[in-house]
């Protein structure tokens, strides 16, 4: 997602220099401030970051077992399932990269989904004892706080002397409109702390004497990063490679270039060996495993930045309270730019001032930052220009060259903006560091400008709504009377991206542990368009390929459509139930959709017409299914 400049706080050849130089020649411990004072400032920043994260996530913490992020109900349910799978994984020593618990009988390739195995395993004890709802809120809160804090430390180590300057950059990145937008359901894209740590170690590669150690550590960090957010790790690697390439070959003197490049290449070789060995299984599953596919199931041209969105204000911000926000994002979770005109203007002015006041060594760093920022800005615009909500199909852009390139074809263009946001945070920290050390007037002027640029985009808390509570039928374990262990059962409607309750009920049983577990058909995941074993190119899609019966349930739940059921419908249902090997269907008292409750009454009428009268069991209605037999045909008199 991002990369910072390889420059320490002091120049090795001129101890009094204001400009940073080679990252391997100086350590931040040389600062005159005492270790105690440094720790006090670090602690203060950590507390501020945590308080801000709790503020943003407060709606979830008020009622973690009932509240859900209103702008992305489904993704929260999906990540709760992933967290619960961590408990199941450890208890049953299951395959972390493939499961048949979802999408029975085919299964799901988890290596091609946002499984976040690192979080799932690390927080498995919390998930088991408190539930995946609490784990989700915990990880989300720590992600935002950790992103701001790690980037504060990162800037302090590599770029700035001033703690307040580093805090400005850290808070801008950690609570940028982009990260807060992704907090609407995404545990992977809010993990900016991971990218900061990986980038930190990348900048250590040119240092002398630690080639093997640095390579080993970076390999371990890349392995961790892949299991947290593989797409973000790809962005980080791309940004680091581009930055280091520009930085190394912009340095004066061929000898310096050769020395730096040699050390970096040796360390990267070690990194490749370590990460390659540890990631061989998930990478094999990703590129050659069962149910593999290409693409994402999402339209790249739709998930691209509108050019105007960079200077617009986000809807969920202080500016949005005054009606100044702009609705130009693909959805509320992908509003990744929206930096506002004041901040964009300040960024441009800051680059000019810093360039003018910098030494040749510092200009190498600024040039590399500018190149990375420009490259990712162009990628974020997608394959065709979008302006004020309109796509100009006759104006191809840089991303059009990468649409079918592996890895690029699995990344949504709008998300490349997060790298641009990081560049903004770095430049703003450099500006603050440059002027905070000067007189009172300079400090006051720059401070006011920074506040004026950041205040309008300060985030508001995430919107939440209530969702269906866990049925007693699931919580009490009564469900075990209606399905065999590892048998197939589902609530209605079958899980899909806009209705994930069935995945939630399965997730809560996984989180509690125990030997008994049921599987579900369909689900919210990424998979191939179909399952034809023809060896042809399979494009990705969201969820399982549609079957006629689950479409009936979906239309009833979403739009209240209840068609007249005939024996042809029942015959098709027998085929579908036999395919899924389903043993029971149940309907809870509440059914959650993307914006609130779905049409339970319509589901009840449809299913009763299809299968007959249900059985009341605690707080749900249950229909037992004999695959291949149910539903039986009826005469008109029936």
TrEMBL record:
Coiled-coil stretches noted in the UniProt entry, renumbered to this chain: none
DUF6311 domain segment(s): 87-426
What keywords are assigned to this protein?
A: Membrane, Transmembrane, Transmembrane helix
Q: Where is this region: Disordered?
A: 1-33
> Which Pfam families did the record assign?
DUF6311
Instruction: Locate the compositionally biased regions of type Low complexity.
Output: 1-15
TM ranges: 43-61, 136-155, 162-180, 186-203, 215-244, 264-287, 307-326, 338-355, 364-382, 414-432, 444-462
Mind telling me what this protein is named?
Answer: DUF6311 domain-containing protein
